[in-house]
Amino acid sequence: MSVLQDIRNTDAEELKDFFDKIGEPSFRFLQLQEWIWERSAESFEEMTNLPLALRQKLSEHFEFRKAEVHKEQHSSDGTVKNAVRLFDGLVVESVLIPTESRSTACVSSQVGCSLDCHFCATARLKRMRNLSPDEIYDQVVLIDRQSRLKFNRPLSNIVFMGMGEPLLNYSNVLKAIERITSEEHGLGMAAKRITLSTVGVSKMIRKLADDRVRFNLAISLHSAINERRSSIMSINDASPLEELMDSLQYWYLITRRRITFEYVVWKGFNDDEQSIKALVAYCKKVPSKVNLIEYNAIGDARFQQADVEVLELYRQELSHAGISSFIRHSRGRDIDAACGQLANKSTQ
Fold this sequence. Notes:
It is a single chain. This protein is an alpha/beta fold. It folds into 2 domains: 5-63, DNA polymerase, domain 1; 68-347, TIM Barrel. It has 11 helices and 14 strands. The strands form 3 sheets. The protein has a 10-stranded mixed beta sheet, with helices on one face. Strands 1-2 form a two-stranded parallel sheet. Strand 5 and strand 6 form a beta hairpin. The model has no long low-confidence stretch (mean pLDDT 90).
């Protein structure tokens, strides 16, 4: 028995060749693309403007490997966490984060993670594989539907802050974003409403700049002191703060887009004056803003949330230096949907 190809993960040129071989006009290919990417069709039967014979031929060669929501969890603050089951049975988590004026999708890029950030629950999972472009796209479509159903509005923003390191799945993530932002055959979302968050893979940040991407960049920083950052994020040994800054300055030179630093403050780790001064000095080297984030517990006694007064002191010192900063209060903490908590508990 032959294995069917995933229609959405098949190269466009290959699909065009297929249509040529079976004698179908080129506009039929365009109709197919519209059904797949603009209307988010899940079967050939839905494609009612395609001849029945063509739909039959397509079903003999291709299939839809759709992701689906296996389980939803609802937070008291309106946040929705999804356990998304993939075609091969593996599961990733994605989150719908609503506020009064917007709906944000937090999506995953890998099943598990190959990094070892000590404060992150996802890092405790084995990286099983990268997500394909259509699996990333599916998460966005599913959350958009949820937002329309539950809040009567479409998605307004997307953040790549779910499971996995996006820059270690570079090609697939960029293909997914290209599809999400496509006006002709996609969701038509503005690139400026998309933020990719990375631990700081310097050479890939430079590649992002060279590829002239139009979305926003966020760096999971958490300390501007090499020794301290390395103690909780081994990526800092391979790409220390100086090298990371070089890549960020290059990013800004090419894209002219300000960087966001994501910065969790922990008691007894980076809640001291030295840490505050180091962050201020680091931020001055490139146009940036800072999200000061409340820590979300993952059951590790080494990490404790810092006092609110410390976050406010950070904010004041950054403000005095002319650097914008915001204190981000966690959403979805009661269902383990907050930053750093995604660990597939919802599938157990």
